[in-house]
Amino acid sequence: MLGVRLIHNRPGSSMGFVDVHVQAIEECRQEVLKVRNMLDFNDAFVDGKTTPPKDSTSAGIFGELEGASDLATKIDDVWGKVKTELGWAQSCMKDVEGALGTVASNFRTGERASGA
Questions:
Q1: Which of 115, 116, 114, 100 is nearest to 21 (CA)?
Q2: Interior CA angle at 52 toward 47 and 58, to 5°?
Q3: What whole-number distance in Å separates Cα of residue 75 and Cα of residue 97?
Q4: What is the pTM of this model?
Q5: 97: which residues sit within 8 A by CB, 6+ positions away?
Q6: Going by C-beta distance under 8 Å and a sequence separation of 6 or more, which residues neighbour residue 7?
Q7: 21-30 contacts: CB < 8 A, separation 24 or more?
Q8: Angle of CA points 92, 20, 29, to nearest 5°
Q9: Nearest to 7 by CA among 15, 16, 104
């Protein structure tokens, strides 16, 4: 089990032991937020030549290809799954971000309670 020592100031430092760890947690939290924002389906197409699908895929884009309708349906299924998975990943990252915020807040509360 990880123990937390509250050291008000180390020699030659104006930052307490807890401050350093809280700062690291906050930096991690910021990185999680960046990743969460990168998982936005529409943002994945920013600055690219491809655009996200707006409607169902038309079988007509495949010309006279036999099975074009089934292929178009499968393509739409893939896009739907991509959107769902990215949404799920964003939700997970939001939870991680919130948990890191809670940990940082608990550290600060503990530091204040100790009189640091």
A1: 100
A2: 140
A3: 33
A4: 0.70
A5: 29, 32, 33, 36
A6: 16, 17, 18
A7: 21/107, 22/104, 22/107, 22/108, 25/100, 25/103, 25/104, 25/107, 26/100, 26/104, 28/100, 29/97, 29/100, 29/101, 29/104
A8: 15
A9: 16
Count how many residues are written for the chain.
Answer: 116
Amino acid of residue 58 = S
Angstrom distance (rounded) from CA 78 to CA 41: 13
Residues whose CB falls within 8 Å of the CB of residue 83, separated by 6 or more in sequence, listed in order: 41
Spell out the per-residue pLDDT of the chain, length 116, in tens: 334 444 444 555 555 555 668 888 999 999 999 999 889 888 877 887 888 888 899 999 999 999 999 999 999 999 999 999 999 999 999 999 999 999 999 888 887 887 76
